[in-house]
Design goal:
Elements lengths: L2 H10 L12 E2 L2 H12 L7 E5 L7 H4 L5 E6 L2 H10 L1 H5 L3 E5 L2 H4 L9 E5 L5 H8 L8 E7 H7 L10 H9 E9 L4 E2 L6 E8 L10 H12 L23 H13 L4
Parallel strand pairs: 2-3, 2-5, 3-4, 5-6
Antiparallel strand pairs: 1-8, 6-9, 7-9
Length: 265
């Protein structure tokens, strides 16, 4: 949808972008098409794609154009009404399944193994949404998200850098992270105050941490990063004199497993 069409669609329904939901609608049609193509590149016909926060359907329009099963999760009731009207034929044909509600509540009950998960993630819940996506059944081919630049930098942060933290460690322990491209605020309505970045997470064939272990692992890593200037020996029951940002994801996993096997006194 063009910027003019987005404004007209919102005005005709008495809707407006809700800041509390982090709503910034992508209005560059060529860019939306390009992102959708990257999301489903190489995906076989009939595969399930989950889109988080479809908004007015910028990415959805290209996703439902292929022979795919698209499940979209949208919290805003007014936008759900619009999407049902816009994609009536796709819903009737079974290629589009719109689920109204909070993605954080829907994802744990999804009961399908999507091949692709994509979407424009609201800044205020981008981290918990990522955590839920990493707990989905099966192993998606990829996760492709638009996030604020700060989040993208944290996801791809390297040991020793200021952007490297607990989120970097967990995500990199289970995925390869690539920052695909930066998007200026001008391609969104309303334009956000900061740039966004398109990030691709490719799940590892052999993740360093299993799905059922990730909550426990993250809790330990977060404790280690809770006071970055302190040595880990002052924060965790270990004798390691390094600081949290000095350990690679693999070293964090080794440290965590060692903590689990050490005898308790």
């Amino acid at each position: 949808m063009t910027l003019t069409e987005i404004r007209a669609a919102l005005d005709s329904r008495g809707l407006r972008p809700l800041k509390q939901l982090g709503q910034n609608f992508l209005h560059d049609q060529n860019l939306a098409r390009w992102i959708a193509e990257r999301a489903v590149e190489g995906v076989e016909s009939g595969a399930t794609v989950v889109e988080i926060g479809p908004g007015l359907g910028a990415l959805t329009e290209s996703l439902v154009g292929g022979d795919l099963k698209v499940i979209a999760l949208e919290k805003d009731r007014g936008l759900c009404v619009f999407l049902r009207e816009r994609f009536t034929a796709e819903i009737a044909g079974g290629g589009f399944d719109l689920r109204e509600g909070d993605a954080l509540e829907i994802l744990p009950r999804l009961e399908v193994a999507p091949v692709v998960v994509c979407g424009n993630l609201p800044y205020y819940i981008s981290t918990p949404l990522l955590m839920e996506c990493l707990r989905l059944p099966g192993r998606p081919a990829r996760l492709l998200f638009l996030v604020q630049r700060e989040v993208g930098q944290r996801l791809a942060g390297l040991p020793g850098s200021k952007t490297y933290g607990a989120l970097s460690v967990l995500v990199q322990a289970v995925c390869e992270v690539t920052q695909v491209r930066t998007l200026p605020g001008s391609v969104f309505y309303p334009p956000p105050e900061v740039e966004s970045v398109l990030v691709r997470l490719t799940p590892r064939l052999e993740p360093l941490v299993a799905v059922e272990e990730r909550v426990d692992f993250l809790a330990v890593v977060q404790r280690g990063f809770s006071q970055r200037r302190k040595k880990l020996s002052n924060l965790l029951p270990i004798s390691d004199g390094r600081r949290a940002e000095e350990l690679s994801p693999a070293e964090w996993v080794e440290l965590w497993r060692g903590m689990k096997t050490e005898p308790t006194s």
